[in-house]
Automatic annotation (TrEMBL):
Belongs to the saccharopine dehydrogenase family. Enoyl reductase subfamily. Signal peptide: none annotated. Residues 5-104 form the Saccharopine dehydrogenase NADP binding domain. It comes from Mycobacterium talmoniae. The lineage of its organism: Bacteria, Bacillati, Actinomycetota, Actinomycetes, Mycobacteriales. InterPro entries: NAD(P)-bd_dom_sf, Sacchrp_dh_NADP-bd. This is Saccharopine dehydrogenase.
Length: 365
C-alpha cells in the first residue's frame, strides 16, 4: 500500500473506532482535526503517528490533507454542516473518500454535486459506509439475488439484539431527534418520494419473534435502485425500540405538525436538543452487550415474499469502525471498482463486500 490514509475527526468517538480498526490491520493512518494539542497527544499515545491540523472553516487546509489516490476518511458531523468542504476536497484532489454519515440528504447532495467529477477523476466517493447503511444495502442486494427476476419491492429493517438504552452515542441521539422532522425518502414507482418519518410502522421477523419498526431514511433508497432497476419500491425501517414504534410515530406526527406553526420549528429543535446528552459514546464493554441485526424482505409484484435475508454482527458502533477501516484499506490498495459517488456494492462488488463484511463480523444468519 503506497497511498496514504487520512482520518479527519481523529480525536472524536467514531474517528477513534476507525483508527483502532486500522491499527489492528497494521495500517498507520495520518490523524487530522482542528485541535493541534489533542492531535499531538493522541498521535503520541498511538506510537508516534503523523498528524495534521485542518479545519472545515479553512477549506484549503482540508484540501492539503490528500493527493490523488489517497483516501480521506471523515467522521466529522453533522455532515450537512461540516461535511461538504471535506467531500469537495477529496474530489478536487482526485482522492478516494469514506464517511460515517447517516444523513441521506447529505448523500443525495454529494451525488448531485460531485458524481460526474469523481468519475472523471477515477475517485470513489463512498458515503455512509458504516452501520448506516452498509448492512441494509448488503442484505437487500443478497435478497434481490436470491429472489431473481421476480423482485419488485425491498423492505429493510434495522434491529438491535440487546438493549441500546445506555448504548447510544451523542451523534446518534442527535441524528434521531432531529430526524423526526426531516423527510424520510422512499423509492416508489421509479422516483424518490419524501414521506414523514415514522408515518408507517410494520413488523419484521427477527430471530423467533416479530418486531415492529418505523419508517426512516436510508441510502438503500438511493443505491439499491441504481443496482437493481427492476425495483419499484424500497423502504427502510428502524426497530431499535420495537415497543416504542407507535409512540415514536405519534411524536413524529405531533412534531411535524408543530413545525408548521409560527415559531414551532424553534420549539421542536429546542426540545430535541435536550435529548442529545453528553459527548462520546458507549465503551467497549457496553458495545459488547449489543448485536446488530438487519433483515431485507424482497417481494414480487403481488406483494408476496420471494426472499428474506438476515445479517447479524457486532454493535452498530463497533461495526461502523470495522467497515470504514476495511473500505479505507481496500481503496488505498487499489481494490475499488466503480468511481463516482457510489454505494458499497458498486464501490467493491457484491461478493467482495460479503467477504469484507464477514471480516468485520457481519454475516448471514
Amino acid at each position: 500500500m503506497t497511498n496514504q490514509i487520512v482520518v479527519f475527526g481523529a480525536t472524536g468517538y467514531t474517528g477513534g473506532l476507525v483508527i483502532d480498526a486500522l491499527l489492528r490491520r497494521g495500517v498507520r493512518p495520518v490523524l487530522a482535526g482542528r485541535g493541534a494539542e489533542r492531535l499531538a497527544k493522541l498521535a503520541e499515545q498511538l506510537g508516534g503517528l503523523e498528524y495534521r491540523v485542518a479545519d472545515v472553516d479553512d477549506p484549503a487546509s482540508v484540501r492539503a490533507l490528500v493527493g490523488a489516490g489517497d483516501v480521506l476518511v471523515t467522521t466529522v458531523g453533522p455532515f450537512e454542516q461540516f461535511g461538504h468542504p471535506v467531500a469537495r476536497a477529496a474530489v478536487d484532489a482526485g482522492a478516494h473518500y469514506v464517511d460515517s454519515t447517516g444523513e441521506v440528504g447529505f448523500v443525495r447532495a454529494l451525488r448531485q454535486r460531485h458524481d460526474a467529477r469523481a468519475r472523471a477523476a477515477g475517485a470513489i466517493i463512498a458515503p455512509a459506509f458504516g452501520y448506516d447503511y452498509v448492512p441494509g444495502i448488503l442484505a437487500g442486494a443478497l435478497a434481490a439475488r436470491a429472489a431473481g427476476a421476480a423482485v419488485r419491492a425491498m423492505e429493510v429493517g434495522y434491529f438491535a439484539i440487546g438493549s441500546l438504552r445506555n448504548g447510544l452515542s451523542q451523534g446518534t441521539r442527535k441524528t434521531m431527534a432531529e430526524g423526526l422532522i426531516l423527510p424520510a425518502p422512499v423509492w416508489r414507482h421509479g422516483r424518490l418520494v419524501d414521506e414523514i418519518t415514522a408515518r408507517q410502522v410494520r413488523e419484521f421477523p427477527v430471530r423467533a419473534a416479530r418486531k415492529k419498526a418505523f419508517l426512516v431514511s436510508g441510502t438503500e433508497v438511493l443505491f439499491l435502485p441504481a443496482q437493481l432497476p427492476e425495483l419499484d419500491s424500497v423502504t427502510v425501517y428502524n426497530g431499535w425500540f420495537p415497543q416504542l414504534s407507535r409512540v415514536i410515530q405519534l411524536v413524529s406526527t405531533l412534531a411535524n405538525t408543530t413545525v408548521r406553526l409560527p415559531y414551532g420549528r424553534n420549539l421542536v429543535e429546542a426540545l430535541a436538543a435536550r435529548t442529545v446528552g453528553g459527548s462520546g459514546g458507549p465503551d467497549a464493554a457496553e458495545r459488547a452487550r449489543t448485536l446488530s441485526h438487519v433483515v431485507a424482505v424482497a417481494r414480487d409484484a403481488s406483494g408476496e415474499t420471494v426472499a428474506e435475508v438476515h445479517l447479524e454482527g457486532p454493535s452498530p458502533y463497533s461495526l461502523t469502525g470495522e467497515l470504514m477501516a476495511w473500505a479505507t484499506h481496500e481503496l488505498a490498495c487499489g481494490a475499488g471498482k466503480t468511481p463516482g459517488v457510489v454505494g458499497p456494492v458498486d464501490a467493491f462488488g457484491l461478493d467482495e463486500l460479503v467477504t469484507g463484511c464477514a471480516a468485520a463480523g457481519l454475516v448471514q444468519v
